[in-house]
Amino acid sequence: MKWWEKTVEYYFIRKFIPDEMILSPLDGEQEKAGDAFLSSSEKWVVLEFKKDLKSLATEKKKYKNYDLAAAELSSSDSHHFLIYGQIAKGKFGLGGKTYFSNSPVSKISEIFEAGKEKEEFISYLERLIEHKSKVDESSGGSVGSYSFVAGINKDNKVTSCMNLYEFGLDHGLKLEPKPEIKREVEHERSGPSLRM
To answer: Which terminus of the chain is more exposed, N or C, with fewer CB under 10 A?
Structure first.
């Protein structure tokens, strides 16, 4: 069986997002046009969709220093998940684990119990973005345009769906990494000098 990252995302949406929330697979300009249905009592999770388990390693390229990001954030990533496609018992399904700490998710529906309150969620996002690399212009999106953010109500049901960029706009956040400062290294010159 063959599938793609968007297959995983669409499968997740069809399985876990209520029919009354009209969504299309999130990509590029369509993502930026999505509506947010916000509630003050929501808790929040971040989801990153990947094709399969082998594809998870590509996330490391999104960081200035992945190991440093993981060291800082792995103890507080219980609401940030990698969701991927897999074959189990001959059928396509979803697997998942926490983003940095790699704790496996036994049932995907359990992620909705892991939501963080808005203030704690925003604090995590700000720390996360500090570690992100500047987005490659050719990718066609901002840093948060490909992360899926879900608001969860007290009954662990999805009530809001948007990308991370939209979440930032809705909450007055600037979710772009600061540019890296590159210093030029001065090379010492050794050897005879030419004096004229």
So the answer is: C
Residues 102-158 pLDDT 10s? 999 999 999 999 999 999 999 999 999 899 886 543 333 444 446 889 999 888 888
Residues 83 and 109 sit within 8 Å (Cβ to Cβ): no
Residue with tokens 């005879």: 192
Indicate the SS3 state at residue 82: strand
**What are the angstrom distances between the C-alpha of 159 and each of 36, 38, 92, 151, 175?**
9, 8, 26, 6, 22
Of the candidates 150, 144, 151, the residue with the CA atom closest to the CA atom of residue 166: 144
> Alpha-carbon distance 3 to 173, whole Å?
35
Q: Where are the chain's structural domains?
A: 5-18+38-170
- pTM of whole model > 0.90? no
**C-alpha dihedral over 103, 105, 110, 113, to 10 degrees?**
10
Q: For residue range 66-81, list pLDDT tens digits in order.
A: 999 999 999 999 999 9
Q: Which one, of 155, 106, 104, 125, lies nearest residue 45 by Cα? A: 125
